[in-house]
């Protein structure tokens, strides 16, 4: 089931669809296309190419407790994955979930991250998640602006070293 087409700021179109366990190789290919800086910003450190085991684990989603959405260039094709947004509901509290976004370098700064975040907020709302939390490198102003731009209450605190902890409130359902 694809959502889209979504037109990006530069005129390109993408579709959003649920990530599936079959996407492990697509995630490996996505990692190979990322710059070192993008990898560092997402994983808070440099990370070598994903092993098959890493990719299988990242693709292991149930779309209930572990929700992940992929951006793809064509709806039903098994083409490249351009971006992934995800959250994993915390084991110690079903109203909290850890958030992560990853956008291929060639698709950054054109609204794709905003689209993914918007969709994840809706998915979280439907699951009664109240807070999305995660970690951001100090100085990653792009992501902090993205989070602030949602209009949702955002708390940012120092976690340690050059890492900030973020907590983004999810608006209750209408």
Helical amount = 25-40%
Which fold name corresponds to the CATH topology? Aminopeptidase
Largest sheet composition: 8 strands, mixed
How many domains is the backbone divided into? Answer: 1
Helices and strands: which structural class?
Answer: alpha+beta
The oligomeric status of these chains comes to single chain
Shape type:
globular
The proportion of strand residues reads: 25-35%
Mean pLDDT: 93
* Largest sheet strand order: 1-2-3-4-5-6-8-7
Condensed summary:
By secondary structure, this protein is α+β, with helices and mostly antiparallel strands.
Task: Write structural notes for this entry.
The structure is a single chain. With 174 residues, the chain is α+β, with helices and mostly antiparallel strands. It has one domain (3-129): Aminopeptidase (3-Layer(aba) Sandwich). Helices cover 28% and strands 33% of the residues. The chain has helices spanning 24-33, 36-43, 52-59, 112-126, 141-148, and strands spanning 3-7, 13-18, 66-72, 83-90, 93-103, 131-137, 154-160, 163-169. Strands 1-2-3-4-5-6-8-7 form an eight-stranded mixed β-sheet. Helix 1 packs across helix 3. The protein is globular and about 40 Å long.
């Amino acid at each position: 089931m694809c959502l889209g087409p979504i037109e990006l700021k530069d005129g390109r179109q993408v579709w959003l669809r649920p990530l599936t366990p079959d996407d492990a190789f697509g995630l490996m290919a996505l990692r190979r296309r990322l710059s070192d800086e993008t990898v560092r910003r997402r994983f808070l450190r440099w990370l070598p190419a994903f092993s098959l085991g890493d990719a299988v684990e990242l693709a292991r989603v149930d779309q209930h407790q572990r929700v992940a959405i992929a951006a793809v260039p064509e709806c039903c094709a098994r083409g490249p994955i351009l971006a992934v947004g995800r959250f994993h509901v915390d084991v110690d509290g079903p109203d909290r979930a850890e958030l992560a976004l990853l956008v291929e370098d060639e698709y950054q700064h054109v609204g794709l991250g905003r689209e993914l975040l918007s969709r994840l907020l809706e998915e979280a709302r439907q699951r009664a998640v109240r807070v999305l939390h995660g970690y951001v490198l100090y100085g990653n102003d792009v992501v902090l602006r993205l989070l602030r731009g949602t209009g949702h209450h955002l708390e940012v605190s120092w976690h340690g070293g050059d890492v900030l902890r973020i907590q983004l409130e999810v608006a209750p359902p209408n």
